[in-house]
Amino acid sequence: MSALIAPSILSADFANLERDLGAIATADYAHVDVMDNHFVPNLTLGLPIFERLVQVSPVPIDAHLMIADPDRWAPGYAEAGAASVTFHAEAATAPVRLARELRRLGSRAGLALRPATSVEPFLDLLPEFDMLLVMTVEPGFGGQSFIEGTLPKIRRIRDAVSEAGLDVWIQVDGGVSRATIERAAEAGANVFVAGSAVYGAENIPEEIAALRALAEGHAH
Ligand SMILES: O=C(CO)[C@@H](O)[C@H](O)COP(=O)(O)O
Ligand SMILES: [Fe+2]
């Protein structure tokens, strides 16, 4: 499976989001972090801005919802045209019902796990999802360092997905850079979110290409 790169616009200039989406036109997705100051101690943007981002982005949008009550709010992001909507396992009341609703609305459905959340209770639900997101930092902020202790969870998901013969993508988010992406790919991740590494680079297209090449060198 090829490696997909999804730069996070959390590290973009919020006064120039259209320009900064244009800067990642060679990426596979634009990763949009929605934070509500309840599920995480930070606040970013909501549906009115998100709807415009979908309209102006040169690449499909991958929504990462760090919000309370995703059962209520997540379908709106699929209706707005997100290619993928990921909500947190810790926040959802009825994850299967919500995943089915997202798929019915035409979006891929993703389930996110904080670093300390075990995947075991969710393994039986893998067929209901298109992607599992393993947070490799505590959600809420960009620029944190990669938590190596999440690698066994990535391997566990990779093994469960392949044993079940499923095509569930594994995304990593947080602290992904040239220094860490190979270990995440080796463990089984195939979708790589990078905020500060991409937007902090001198040459953004070159950084995206370098991350993709490093990940593909270790892909399964
Ligand atoms: O979801 C989040 C943070 O909660 C991320 O998507 C960050 O935006 C990643 O930033 P870097 O760690 O790559 O700087
Ligand atoms: Fe994210």
Automatic annotation (TrEMBL):
GO molecular function: D-ribulose-phosphate 3-epimerase activity
PROSITE patterns, A to Z: RIBUL_P_3_EPIMER_2
EC number(s) on file: 5.1.3.1
Keyword terms, alphabetized: Carbohydrate metabolism, Isomerase, Metal-binding
Metabolic or biological pathway, per its Swiss-Prot or TrEMBL entry: Carbohydrate degradation
Free-text remark on how the cofactor is bound: Binds 1 divalent metal cation per subunit.
Sites where the protein binds a divalent metal cation: 31, 33, 64, 173
Record flagged with keyword Chaperone: no
Family designation: Belongs to the ribulose-phosphate 3-epimerase family.
Protein name in UniProt: Ribulose-phosphate 3-epimerase
Organism listed in the record: Oerskovia merdavium
Phylogenetic placement of the source organism: Bacteria, Bacillati, Actinomycetota, Actinomycetes, Micrococcales
